[in-house]
Write a structure and sequence with these properties.
heterodimer, A: about 230 residues, alpha/beta, Elongation Factor Tu (Ef-tu), domain 3, Rossmann fold, 2 domains, 6-stranded antiparallel β-sheet, 5-stranded parallel β-sheet, about 20% helix, B: about 200 residues, mainly beta, Sulfite Oxidase, Chain A, domain 2, 6-stranded mixed β-sheet, 5-stranded mixed β-sheet, binds flavin-adenine dinucleotide
Chain lengths: ~230, ~200
Amino acid sequence: MTATVASVHPETASARSLTIDVPGWRGNIAGQHVDVRLTAEDGYQAVRSYSLASSGPGATLQLAVDRLPDGEVSPYLVDDVLPGDQLEIRGPLGGWFVWEPSLAGSVQLIAGGSGIVPLMAMIRSRAASASTSPFRLLYSVRNPDDVFFRAELETPTPGLEVTWAYTRATPTGWPRPTGRVTGDDLSAHCFPASENPAVFVCGPTGFVEAVANALVLLGHDPARVKTERFGGA
Amino acid sequence: MAVISRGFGSRRRESDDSLPPGQYLTKDFPVLSAGPTPRIDTADWEFSITNETGVVSRWNWEQLHALPIEDIDTDIHCVTRWSKLGTNWRGVSLDTLFKDVDTVYEHTMAHCYGGYTTNIPLADLLDGKAWIAFDFDGEDLDPEHGGPARLLVPHLYFWKSAKWIKGLQMLPQDQPGFWEQNGYNMYGDPWQEQRYW
Ligand SMILES: Cc1cc2nc3c(=O)[nH]c(=O)nc-3n(C[C@H](O)[C@H](O)[C@H](O)COP(=O)(O)OP(=O)(O)OC[C@H]3O[C@@H](n4cnc5c(N)ncnc54)[C@H](O)[C@@H]3O)c2cc1C
């Protein structure tokens, strides 16, 4: 399907969100992704997967892309694409890492970096619905400047609690020292295993591995922990 | 006719005709799984094949290692678009494991520790095309990559090479496994680019 870039918005120094119009799009569930295909003038093509930050029936979608400095596709989407440019997308893809407002029960979201994107779709889907499921988000970023969707997450909708974890630098006076998310962070800030929450973990592969393993050690049922690995080490 | 993305293509990777369509080469070994990585002790590990009459052929870790072990040098292709060339594995051929299995069924469902399933036609497991692999690049297979043992069916997209393999169930007809129920192709030939529905 042909997508036309409607607007671009910087999210962080290395990331931006793209709003795209996709005539004929039949809607998607929160958590799904698309394959984006780019074609150069000479016919050369590359395809990468990107999660949708948006959900529902509309044909205007939002992506948010973080630039990998030595990457092929992400620097183009972050630095070069302008409103009016066209790309091709295929989707919606994925039927496992998804949340729908009809699902009852507590939901624990755990994001590393750009892994916030599909979880943001879940947060927005909940806010737009009558769902009263309690949500918690634990969001790990390198620095305070690396937060995606800052305005929405700093003033969360009722029923959503957000906890921040910084790995390289914190805001001044921040109580938690810098460092990767540990089992202690998970037990302090996440719904406990005894509540049997649905857990969604998304981010770079190493982050997802570490968090998912720690959740299982804390007693979470592996069948309740859904993961989406974005790649990398 | 493809839509041209203005100005795209300056950072392109070298194209490589040895790769299936839409794949790019990686030197890493990325991980694709639906949930946490299960940890299975080789003392508790068992692999089995169950036929249509309910006869179960079983191998524990020692019994598997007592069978002829093959060195496998192969390319692997993940549906998330990375390919890795010339990977080295050690494992036992499914031809060896199926030698004494009595079946007329032509389809299988792979079942895994952790609950994952994937469907594979029997013909794609035989004739030197598939193994139970437990060694990657000279080392024990990491749990993240499916250790202690995974199915290795490298001519199909790599989700068919089920991690943490536990058993194969013979089936009279094809049925979708886990990713197949969640939108992936029933067969998954990378050269035909059979990624999704
Ligand atoms: C289901 C799915 C959803 C995704 N959603 C998003 C999203 O919403 N936003 C987003 O920014 N990205 C997302 N990604 C990652 C995205 O698909 C690309 O992998 C990423 O943008 C890098 O592409 P590239 O062409 O710039 O780099 P490439 O040229 O492909 O790769 C450069 C190098 O970086 C490695 N690498 C790939 N991904 C990562 C990573 N995440 N971290 C560190 N190293 C990596 C590669 O293995 C390679 O060695 C998603 C991936 C998947 C599988």
